[in-house]
What does this fold into?
Amino acid sequence: MTSQETKQQQIAEILALAPVVPVVIVDTVAHAVPMARALVAGGIRSIEVTLRTPAALDAIRAISAEVPDAIVGVGTVLDATQLEAARVAGAKFAVSPGVSPKLLDAADASGLPLLPGVATVGEAMHLLERGYRHLKLFPAVPVGGVALLKAWASPLPQLRFCPTGGIKPETAHDFLALPNVACVGGSWLTPKDKLTNGDWVGIEQLARAAAALR
Ligand code: 3PG
It folds into this structure.
């Protein structure tokens, strides 16, 4: 197997763990471990911690060290420096909202498997050429949602997607019913108020409901 084939296999396994990958914004490092434990207790093991706050890398480090059943990934990766910093912090996979040539080169050189974001057929074709088989559709609902994924299934049968952006618990099953959808991403499992209030029971309940979506 080539290195990219190995990484695609790893991504496939990560996306198969649950119907939903939570997209998390962590403001306070101390929230990271109890949040991850609550998600895992609810049946959600893959967790995407976005690089949108100063706490993000420390949150990844803490989850990686203290929650062995979680598969912590890094989200909102925009460049090679962020990719490497997240790998060193303990991330097991990376997610980007889109792609750039430099980021793809860095991903090829890195041990971290990347789930890159696309919004057009041209981007999807470019990633196919580079050996990718699993892509994030972003932002899923604004760019066409279920109708777009149905339209892409026939010309792009090699690809499976993790649509993310604008998906809600009530609409997730419409995406999960599609044969070219591996899972969906969403921020609804870790709402800001529950994180701020330390409502880990509430997060576990949201995770349990998400894990039961399929
Ligand atoms: C994001 O950009 O934060 C993710 O795509 C999650 O989107 P959502 O908040 O619509 O679930």
User: Anything to note?
Assistant: Residues 3-15 form the longest helix (13 residues). The mean pLDDT is 98. The radius of gyration is 16 Å. The CA atoms of residues 18 and 44 lie 6 Å apart.
